Amino acid sequence: MQNEYKVQLKNITKHFGGVKALTDVTLQIKKGEIHALIGENGAGKSTLMKILSGAYQKDSGQIFIDGREVKITSPKEAKDLGVAVIYQEFMLAPDLTVAENIFIDKLVDAGMFINWKTLKVKAKEQLLKLGFNDIDPSAKVGTLSVAYQQVVEICKCLTRNAEVLVLDEPTAVLTFSEIEKLFSIIRQLKSEGVSIVYISHRLEEIFQLSDNITVLKDGTYVDTVPTSSISKEELVSMMVGREIMQLFPSRQVKISDEILRVENLNAGKLVKNVSFSVKAGEVVGFSGLVGAGRTETMRAIFGADSIDSGKVIYFGKEVRFKSPKDAIGNGFGLLPEDRKKQGLLLEQSIRNNTTLASMHKIKNKFDIINHRKEKEYVKNLLADINTKYGSSEDNANSLSGGNQQKIALAKWLSADCKCIVFDEPTRGVDVGAKTEIYKIINNLAEQGVGVIMISSEMTELIGMCDRVIIMRQGMIAGEVDKSELNENNLIKFAMGV
Amino acid sequence: MTKENRISKIKDILINNNTYFILLLMFIISSFLSDTFLTSMNLRNIALQQSGPILVAIGMLFVVLTGGIDLSVGSIMAVGASVAAILIRDGMNFIPAILIAMCVGMMFGIFTGFMVAYGKFQGFVASLATMTIARGTAFVFTNGTPIKLADGTLNNIVKKEFMFPIIIIAAIIVIIFALVQKFTGWGRIVIAIGSNSTAVQLAGIRTKHYLLSVYAISGILSALAGVFIAARASTGSATVGMGQELDAIAACVIGGASLAGGKGFVVKTVAGAFVLALIGNIMNLMAVPSYPQDIIKGFIIIAAVLLQIVTNKSEKTV
Fold first, then answer.
1. Which of A338, B18, B169, B315 is the most exposed, having the fewest neighbouring CB atoms within 10 Å of its CB?
2. What count of other Cβ atoms lies within 10 Å of the Cβ of residue B255?
3. pLDDT digits over B192-224, tens only?
4. B39 in a domain, yes or no?
5. Which residue of A has its CA nearest to B191?
6. Which of A18, A342, A348 sits opposite B202 (nearest CB)?
7. Could you say which residues of chain A have pLDDT below 50?
8. E-assigned strands of A328-379?
9. Structural domains in chain A?
10. Which of A322, A323, A339, A356 to mutate to test binding with chain B, by most B CBs within 10 Å of its CB?
11. ipTM score of the complex?
């Protein structure tokens, strides 16, 4: 019997210790379709995909490929069955070349001598097929942009004859022009009969791209629907099980005096003649492509990178923060963009993470920490921002992405900043947690804090900011006021048209 | 409480304290294998013998917690032993002599720490350099000949009539550092650096100062440990502490520390040091020749570390 489904996961159940991660979850993917898998953080999407890719073992349930029941007990078996997963963190060796990475598993089988020339030619062919003739097969992967690294990762999967490709939040680190390119690759693969599972928090993308949508919630299966039959609002309420009142909460603020003024700042290669200002109570957005110099500008002001020239005027006085310690001591905070690499101590307790930047509040002059006071302090602070956690002694990595981000935010809330930079504050965070993070930002603004918000999501900048400054190639390309904020204006400046 | 809960609780206790159980097990096995093991004479010898090595292991632990490693501890022990011996031979009272030896040890530690914190050297490389420099210095100081000390000077700190000062000092240092790790901001930041030094730096903490401090402490404790060894032999020699860095690292690992940093405990590290000590002790009592001893010791270390890995794995899935 011909089976219309390429992959069927039926009644999958998975426990971690006493916690049920998946209960009776079913996912059926047709040949050559783009199937979106959505749900809030912690809904079980990643766990389900890890079972499909052999990284985890299911407790019960069945997996069918081409209608035949299969057992997948290791990533290698999944690979042999034609299942490939591209995770948010790429599995690439940065010091090897593009060609070596694409054919990394073949390097092992190739025996003693490898014909580097054919390897490069084959890699080039594969890249050309996807329309990327500008990637050099002999370039080291570490030197490529994130978007190109992703292309390499996709090529790697394709050379292994992947028939099922799982993409986990592939656009989280891409700019919109890169996203368009990725979408055309995905559509091309679809036309070649590859089945694609597409995981994303960005609903616009799902509506643009997918044929069918499966919704998971709290480790259970909600429904599978054709994309054309459902509206965005309906989808969101399926995901959260409640109506979202308003994605962007409003705030009541009197914007007052200027607290930060930057004049002709130059730092490294990516910050050229940058000037801007921030007032108390204001939320100023920074838009632009990845690599436009937004993060670098803020890091230089924060003292994490050095400033070549220019003036920073903070509360009326010219300053130059020598180090993050110096900046924080003066009430200037920065929430880094990558919470796993720069923001959190994943293997340390929630408590330790929360008070890391404000330890002076919970210790005496002999450096001795008052544990009781600290627990109380952490409990109150995390309750204020509605963080869900088991015990404050649990490690930070036991939390979902949204709650991890709240811990990272809490660290800065407790540091009493007067001006604070949020670098991609909602990246990889689900809809419900996003709104809560916006509320936290609004709260700060209402208390008279000057907020700088770097974001690649334009809807978020439009919904949240009083003003948006657009950077391009290290320079300020333009500024758009709240009244004129729309996607068109932002794109125009960012692309330089 | 359900039965399932109770079992998982017992499992947790076993996992969290596995170093202590290994030590207990070694203790029980040893007492069966040899009649002399449980004599007060033998136990006292173990305590005297280990007073130095546990200090080295604690110093190593704090370096390891930051994600570094200190290979120079054995050589700094030799420097400590030599400096104290020379000063005492030349007529100095043993107490200031010990303090000066500790200061010299600290300078070597700071030297390594400076390379790591400010020169961006890897701990392995920086301390490898310090290791040879310190060993060479010890040989230069002593001219390569052991310095014999008169009775009633340095060996006072190992005498019964003074209640074995080195055991008391070592115990106090263990308690202090166990408390420091648990209750001070310093202890917490040291672990935090090993978990994610970028995050710590971006949280406004001067990671360099902390890196410098752990190597300095390692230097101080190593020099003191060297003095202890010299006191037991009444002789200061430049060959003290050969290979001690490996025992110290092994003690940390048996005590559950991660060489990647961010995980490790003072008291468990001390237990780890005693596990190693018991291995040596019981084989001596059973008259196993010294070369096979090393082989057996190596395998027991592997077994202990394997146990750590296995239990850590089950910890993660809970």
1. B315
2. 29
3. 999 999 999 999 999 999 999 999 999 999 999
4. no
5. A348
6. A342
7. 1, 243-245
8. 332-335
9. 5-240 (3.40.50.300), 258-495 (3.40.50.300)
10. A356
11. 0.84
To the question of pTM greater than 0.80 for the whole model, the response is no
Q: How far apart are CA B180 and CA A385, in angstroms?
A: 32
Mean pLDDT of chain B: 91
Question: How far is Cα A468 from Cα A450, in angstroms, rounded to an integer?
Answer: 14
User: Residue B279: is it exposed, middle or buried by C-beta count within 10 angstroms (0-12/13-18/19+)?
Assistant: buried
Instruction: Report CA-CA distances (Å) from B86 to A27, B94, B145, B225.
Output: 77, 10, 11, 16
Q: Report the domain count for chain B.
A: 1
Residue-number span of the structural domain to which B90 is assigned: 51-272
pLDDT band at B315 (very low <50, low <70, confident <90, very high): very low
Phi and psi (nearest 5°) for A161?
Answer: 55, 45
Report the alpha-carbon distance of residue B57 to residue A152 in Å, rounded.
46
* Token pair belonging to A44: 């079980």
* Token reading at B198: 């970028």
Which residues in chain A are closer than 8 Å to B262, comparing Cβ atoms? 345, 347-348
CA distance, residue A16 to nearest chain B CA (Å): 6
B64 located within any domain: yes
Residue with tokens 């790697």: A156
Q: Residue A395's closest chain B neighbor by CA? A: B316
- Tell me if B122 is assigned to some domain: yes
Q: What is the pLDDT of residues B218-271, one digit of tens each?
A: 999 999 999 999 999 999 999 999 999 999 999 999 898 988 899 999 999 999
Which has the closest alpha carbon to B89: B159, B145, B148, B146? B148
